[in-house]
Amino acid sequence: MGVLVGIVGKPSSGKTTFLNALCGTSAKTADYPFTTIQPNQGVGFVTIPCACQELNVTCNPNNSECIDNVRKIPVKVIDVAGLVPGAYEGKGMGNQFLSDLTQADILIHVVDISGSLNEEGETVDPGSHDPMKDIHFLEYEIAAWMRGILIKDWGRATRKIKTEKGNILDFVTEKFTGLKITKSHIYEAIKKAELDPSNAAEWTEEDILNLCINAQKIGKPIIIAANKIDRPTSKDNFERIKKELGDTIIPTSALTDIVLSNLVNQGKINYTSESGKLDSKSDILPKEEEILKKIKTEILEPYKTTGIFDTLNKAVFDVIHLIPIYPVADVTHFSDNDGKVLPDVFLVKEGTTIKEFAGIIHQDLLKNFIHGIDARNNRKIADKHELKFGDIVRIVAAV
Ligand SMILES: Nc1nc2c(ncn2[C@@H]2O[C@H](COP(=O)(O)OP(=O)(O)O)[C@@H](O)[C@H]2O)c(=O)[nH]1
Ligand SMILES: [Mg+2]
Hints:
Strands 1, 2, 3, 4, 5, 6 and 7 form a 7-stranded mixed sheet that branches. The protein has a 5-stranded mixed sheet with strand order 11-10-14-12-13. It has a two-stranded antiparallel sheet with strand order 8-9. The chain has 14 helices and 14 strands. The chain has helices at residues 15-23, 51-55, 94-100, 131-151, 154-164, 168-175, 183-192, 205-219, 234-245, 254-265, 286-303, 308-319, 354-361, 363-367; strands at 4-8, 40-49, 65-67, 70-79, 106-112, 222-227, 249-251, 269-272, 277-280, 322-327, 346-349, 369-374, 379-381, 392-397. It has a domain at 325-397: Beta-grasp domain (Ubiquitin-like (UB roll)), CATH 3.10.20.30. A hairpin with a 2-residue loop joins strand 3 (65-67) and strand 4 (70-79). By secondary structure, it is of the alpha/beta class. The structure holds guanosine-5'-diphosphate and magnesium ion. Guanosine-5'-diphosphate binds at residues 9, 11-17, 29-31, 35-36, 82, 227-228, 230-231, 253-255.
């Protein structure tokens, strides 16, 4: 189990800064391409209002944290080598990039929304590059790479499927096993691409690319961080592209988040990344005062937050539809066997049944599963019952 979020984008768009802001890490960032060769990793947090407040109990978090009634649930984040056009053919750090992201459940595409870098990540006149191009090209690169994996044995495989009455779905599923793309994703992608599964031998290269574009959208969705929103040329680009993409693009300023965190660490301000709440405290230099004023009027007033945590929350809860579930052993006290109250929260796929959840916690619980109990109302839950966002449940198993 465990969710993995991949941060992708062209060189110098701010991927590593984004990771550092999300995870409180200090991986190297710079203004020249390919600073990141090995993937940087960290642990970020998605947040939900903790059930402790609603239930009026004091919780004892174990696998997560609770700060001011906000439960912070860890998710793994990786930042991979910058992606340049032609990566699927091995250009730049292409192959490295693509194989690093195979295990990701969702991708955050960090885009330089100010349009100040060309497609290779080199500095150009501010506003002269259209960030929409980056968005299209990243989708294309990933799909083209996936197509490359499929077409290796395509001819032989499809002929064999035809003579032996095999199934194209099984072939594609097997090819994509390492990519965390499942059979049901592929089934859906074939349908969306309007391809006839009974004559895969006749599919053109374009058909296969179309299948891959859909498989990526379903199996490895992308959410866009419109980064460097603090720069003068960003706002117009953001508004134009948002009209086209709607809620899947979020304005962010990773650098602003880092600047604020540094001031927090020096004890000069109080600031919560998740809510964007900022108060000055003490010993602020005139220069810092000026920066803070600018951050308030240009970022926090129009956009509320620096967008970093919004992007992660949205990715995990709205795009891949995970839901947080609290397992407990004692439904009266909402505690585990050691008396710890609401110790753990698990992120599971929407649609997970109580019995499947038992298996996620422990194989023995699944083997000996009898039923579940909803701790909020003490009612029995039958095995096929699907869990809801924020459920607190006990698994009853034979001992
Ligand atoms: N103005 C501005 N600069 C940023 C922002 N995020 C990152 N940068 C700068 O962009 C440059 C490249 O950042 P880096 O994180 O190394 O990019 P990467 O190559 O995508 O990992 C650095 O100089 C960062 O300070 C942002 O939100 N606003
Ligand atoms: Mg980097």
